[in-house]
Design goal:
The protein is 20% helix and 33% strand. With 310 residues, it is an alpha+beta fold. The protein has two domains: 115 residues, 2,3-Dihydroxybiphenyl 1,2-Dioxygenase, domain 1, CATH 3.10.180.10; 170 residues, Roll (2,3-Dihydroxybiphenyl 1,2-Dioxygenase, domain 1). The longest helix has 13 residues. The radius of gyration is 18 Å and the shape is globular.
C-alpha cells in the first residue's frame, strides 16, 4: 500500500478567470477561500483553506496536482521510493510551502510531464464554507474528488502511479468520448475508499492536462440543481445525467473554460481494498450519460488545432 492518501488540491491556470468565477460561485456552488485577488481565486469545498486554486494565465494549464501523504515520515518514504526508481524530485523551499499553505512538500513530474506536489499538512480554515445554495461536498479523508488526465504514454503513466506511488488499480474500460472517436480505455485508480481518485485516458496529443475532475456532493438534489444552474449561466452540458457501473455514481458533466469537463455527482461507491472488485466492465453506465451533444475535449485535439483555438 502506498503512502498517498488522497487527492489534496489542484492549481489550475486559466485564460478566463472571470468566467471561472461565475462557474465556481453561481454553478458549482464552491466556497471562496481567503487570500485571493484579481488574478487568483482560491476555492473551498470543506475545512481546507484551498482545494482548488485558479490563476489568471496566458494559457490553460493544470499547474499542479497535490497528492497528500500523512506526515513527514510518509513523505520520507516517498522520497526513498523515488530515489530507488531513479525519479528526480525536489523539496519545496520554506517560502514555497508557505505560499501554497502546506507544512512540507516535494515536487516532481509524472511520465507525461505533469507537475505533481506530494505534500502533508494542508492549512485549515475553520470558518464555515459559505456557499450560495448550501451545497455540501463529500471530501475530507476521501480527498477533493477525482482527476482524469490524458496521456501519450499509457503504460509508463500507469506504471508510475501503480508501481512507484502505490495507487491501486480499480478496473479499466473503453469509453467513447465523442461521436466518431474510437473507443479509448480508461484505467481507474484509487488511494482510499473512494472507488477512484485518479484515472488515465490515452490521448494522441497532450493538451491542457485534464480530461475531467469530479466533485461529489451529498444529495441528489444538489446535482440536479447544479445542472439547472449550468444551463441558466450558459455553460455546456457535455454529458447528461447517468449512473456509472464502476463507482455507481450518478453524475452529469459540464464543460469548463479551458476545454475540459467537470463531473458533478452523488452516491459514489466506497470500497475496501481487501474486497474483491469486478474489474472487467463493458459499459460505463447503467443508464444515461449521453455524450452526443458534447464538444471535443481540448486534450483530444491535435496540438496545432488546440493552439489555433486558443
Ligand atoms: C467515471 O467517473 C467516469 O468519469 C467515467 C468516464 C466512467 C466511469 C466512472
Ligand atoms: Fe469521472
Amino acid at each position: 500500500m502506498g503512502d498517498i492518501r488522497a487527492l489534496g488540491y489542484l492549481r489550475i491556470d486559466t485564460t478566463d478567470l472571470d468566467r471561472w468565477r461565475t462557474l465556481a460561485h453561481d454553478v458549482l456552488d464552491l466556497g471562496v477561500g481567503a487570500g485571493g485577488n484579481d488574478d487568483t481565486l482560491h476555492l473551498r469545498l470543506d475545512e481546507r483553506a484551498r482545494r482548488i486554486t485558479l490563476r489568471r494565465a496566458e494559457k490553460d494549464n493544470l499547474a499542479a496536482v497535490g497528492w497528500e501523504v500523512r506526515d513527514e515520515i510518509a513523505l520520507d518514504r516517498v522520497r526513498a521510493t523515488l530515489t530507488e526508481h531513479g525519479i528526480a524530485y525536489r523539496d519545496l523551499t520554506h517560502d514555497e510551502t508557505q505560499a501554497i499553505k502546506v507544512d512540507g512538500a516535494i515536487t516532481l513530474e509524472d511520465p507525461c510531464g505533469q507537475r505533481l506536489e506530494i505534500f502533508h499538512g494542508a492549512e485549515l480554515d475553520h470558518s464555515k464554507v459559505s456557499t450560495k445554495y448550501r451545497t455540501e461536498f463529500v471530501t475530507d479523508e476521501l480527498g477533493l474528488g477525482h482527476l482524469v488526465v490524458p496521456t501519450t504514454d499509457y503504460d509508463a503513466t500507469i506504471g508510475f502511479y501503480r508501481d512507484v506511488l502505490g495507487f491501486h488499480t480499480r478496473g479499466a474500460f473503453p469509453f467513447p468520448f465523442a461521436p466518431g472517436m474510437p473507443p479509448l480505455r480508461i484505467q481507474f485508480m484509487g488511494v482510499n475508499p473512494r472507488h477512484h481518485s485518479f484515472a488515465v485516458m490515452p490521448a494522441p496529443h497532450m493538451g491542457p492536462g485534464i480530461v475531467h475532475i469530479m466533485l461529489e456532493v451529498a444529495e441528489m438534489d444538489m446535482v440536479a440543481q447544479a445542472m439547472e444552474r449550468t444551463t441558466e449561466h450558459g455553460f455546456g452540458i457535455s454529458s447528461t445525467l447517468g449512473r456509472h457501473t464502476n463507482d455507481k455514481m450518478v453524475s452529469y458533466y459540464l464543460r469548463a473554460p479551458g476545454g475540459w469537463d467537470i463531473e458533478y455527482g452523488y452516491d459514489g461507491l466506497m470500497v475496501d481494498e481487501n474486497q474483491y472488485l469486478p474489474q472487467n466492465i463493458t459499459a460505463d453506465s447503467y443508464w444515461g450519460h449521453d455524450w452526443s451533444g458534447s464538444e471535443p475535449l481540448a486534450c483530444t485535439l491535435p496540438l496545432e488545432e488546440s493552439a489555433a483555438e486558443a
